[in-house]
């Protein structure tokens, strides 16, 4: 079976692709490679890599593809606000384009990578039937994409939406702008954990390997169980308040718990119920927050991760790319040679 993974060189994608290869799948990666090729360099001879954009790639790459995992997006809330229109163009219209082209070209299964951030700020425990409250462009684009791709599902084309909890853990394209990973980096580099005010906000978490395995679980499940369905991805025991998260991370890393507040009070707070994917598909997570924290800590201690790699903070790297683009345009307009 051939699986196309958009964003296959990214934080989740680079882990998911390797798990697919381990299970014997034929894998195609579609990625702009904004962060380079390091995350997939060791598997380049085992996959097909197409450097392109979901907004305008040639549909020929879908020929012979059985399933599409659509992960390509401008990731996280700060990145989404750099250029809200661009975020909608990619995360909403781009992914709707992938879904429509997938159906047109005979793909059997399409899985959209969405986010629990669509729940925004709400009390109580939220499930897939709860109302949504997307507060950022990133969250709004996710929900808009969900609404357009789900109706595409039919007897020949299975569509599934996975609303992922906040992801953590080591990846080949590392990110330190995610809560757990960022706290570990802060503890390693400064000896304190920086906690976003006011610390009482709730957030659900899931390890990068666990969320990757959710895509594979959907792929290998019967169509009638997953078609036109939305699943929250995570585990009920990993809903946690941010201040308590920081305490747990320090303990897992064997360090004294010291913290500093930063930012304005977070407008996002939500707890999520993950019973549906567990009960319907038999999905279980394997990793705890402590496991992921120790994994990242040890990678930093052993030099496998560089805490100062600019590519690990997504919004900063996008800003650098935008500045480089502006510089190139200025040089071209002035008739200078780089």
Automatic annotation (TrEMBL):
A Pfam family the protein falls into: Epimerase
Q: Domain NAD-dependent epimerase/dehydratase: where?
A: 3-234
Q: Which InterPro entries match?
A: Epimerase_deHydtase, Lipid_A_modif_metabolic_enz, NAD(P)-bd_dom_sf
Matching SUPFAM superfamilies: NAD(P)-binding Rossmann-fold domains
Q: What is this protein called?
A: NAD-dependent epimerase/dehydratase
- Native species: Staphylothermus hellenicus (strain DSM 12710 / JCM 10830 / BK20S6-10-b1 / P8)
């Amino acid at each position: 079976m051939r699986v196309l993974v958009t964003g296959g060189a990214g934080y989740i994608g680079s882990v998911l692709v390797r798990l697919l290869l381990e299970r014997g799948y034929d894998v195609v990666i579609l990625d702009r490679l904004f962060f380079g090729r390091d995350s997939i360099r060791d598997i380049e001879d085992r996959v097909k890599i197409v450097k392109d954009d979901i907004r305008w790639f040639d549909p020929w790459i879908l020929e012979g593809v059985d399933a599409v995992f659509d992960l390509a997006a401008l990731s996280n809330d700060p990145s989404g606000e750099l250029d809200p229109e661009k975020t909608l163009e990619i995360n909403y219209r781009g992914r709707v384009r992938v879904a429509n082209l997938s159906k047109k070209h005979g793909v059997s299964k399409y899985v959209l990578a969405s986010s629990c951030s669509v729940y925004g700020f709400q009390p109580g425990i939220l499930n897939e039937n709860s109302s949504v409250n997307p507060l950022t462009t990133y969250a709004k684009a996710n929900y808009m994409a969900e609404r357009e791709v789900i109706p595409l599902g039919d007897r020949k084309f299975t569509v599934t939406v996975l609303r992922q909890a906040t992801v953590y853990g080591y990846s080949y394209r590392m990110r330190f702008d995610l809560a757990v990973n960022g706290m570990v980096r802060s503890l390693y580099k400064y000896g304190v954990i920086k906690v976003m005010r006011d610390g009482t906000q709730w957030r659900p978490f899931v390890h990068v390997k666990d969320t990757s395995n959710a895509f594979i679980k959907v792929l290998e499940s019967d169509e009638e169980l997953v078609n036109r369905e939305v699943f929250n991805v995570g585990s009920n025991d990993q809903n946690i308040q941010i201040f308590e998260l920081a305490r747990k991370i320090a303990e897992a890393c064997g360090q004294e718990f010291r913290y500093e507040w930063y930012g304005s009070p977070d407008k996002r707070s939500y707890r999520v119920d993950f019973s549906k994917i567990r009960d319907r598909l038999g999905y279980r997570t394997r990793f705890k927050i402590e496991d992921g924290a120790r994994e990242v800590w040890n990678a930093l201690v052993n030099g496998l991760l560089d805490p100062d790699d600019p590519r690990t903070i997504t919004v900063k790297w996008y800003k650098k790319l935008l500045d480089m683009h502006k510089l190139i345009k200025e040089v071209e307009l002035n008739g200078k040679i780089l």
